[in-house]
Hints:
- With 384 residues, the chain is of the alpha/beta class.
- The chain is built from 16 helices and eleven strands.
- It has an eight-stranded parallel β-sheet.
- α6 links the parallel β2 and β3.
- α1 packs across α9 and α3 (46-54) crosses α16 (362-378).
- Mean pLDDT is 89; it is low at 1-42.
Amino acid sequence: MRGPVARGIATRAAVAATAAIYLLVFREDSDSGRRDRDAGRAEVPKAVRDLVGELTAEQKVDGILLMGFEGTDSTAPFLDELRARQLGGLLVREENWLDAVQGPALIGELKAAATEDGEIPPLVAAAQEGGEYRSFDDLPPENRQLNIGDSGDPELAESWAFEAGEALREAGFDMNLAPIADVATLDSPLADRAFSDDELITSQLTAAAIRGCEEAGIACVARHFPGLGAASQSTDQGPATVSLDAETLASRDLAPFEAAVAEGAPAVMLSHAFYAAYDPVTPGSLTETIATELLRDGVGFTGVAMTDDLSTGAIRGTSGVATAAVEAVNAGADMLLVSSPDEAANVREALLGAADSEEIPADRLDQAVGRVLELKRRYGLLEE
Length: 384
């Protein structure tokens, strides 16, 4: 492993680079910074692009959904629906998981149903942050990120993430919706979920956690871009605002995401907060300035941009879940997290309608599903 001194120097450089990139890109006309979608498609191998071309519109829409479901065993009605679709991913929630025997068995049943006729497997995901913020209390990690952050030790953060990732992978999971990459002060709604209120420590430990995930062979998701630590409240509860100016966000909140991207993070979760510095009236996950210009052109991320849960109060209290799903894809999101099974059908119908009417351009949908498929290829879910 690299030493903490070297990592500290690299992270400080990342902080400076992020701020410089922001000033170069976003002080100019925003149109000049937009990434051409052909370049976005070229980020995935030709074999994956060819596979995208073979999919129907329905399969493409299903392929960008990460959905929650009801049930705990093979009697779950959702399994029949799963056999008829090619979903991007499945979120196993606390209510689906009874224990460390039933849970892996359920995951096996889900994967078997989803691939019964040779379909593309879904990513099976968990939200296993740590401590009381883990979905499954019979799996690690027992420590919260805050506990790891108090140590300031990148090697501890790496082993913490590795332990969680290894246990999840052995249970059948492919993805963990962690770590929290937010810089959170004591008055933040994320104060006890984040590593630290210091951007350097948060950057070092976030990068270390990404390394731990990679060593365990599980895809981790750095959240919540471009930083939710200064939010007025939790977006789970309702609409929230981040009032920091652009320079502070660039030098403080973006730094851990820059560090995560430098370590090869496969996915980044987009925040639902309003950002006064970018667009004070639209959630960040639905804003092209954030989801495409800042994340892609500013930070240089080429992986999967995933929304935070569209079922949360921040979205229900604004545009509504189905409308937000369409807006998120057009803004640049590649994968849509919908934990509530009650919302899934409406989201799918809205996306299919938008794709059919070309409200969602065909090349944007192809780009999104291509990135999801490339992530699946990277983690062994697609044959080479």
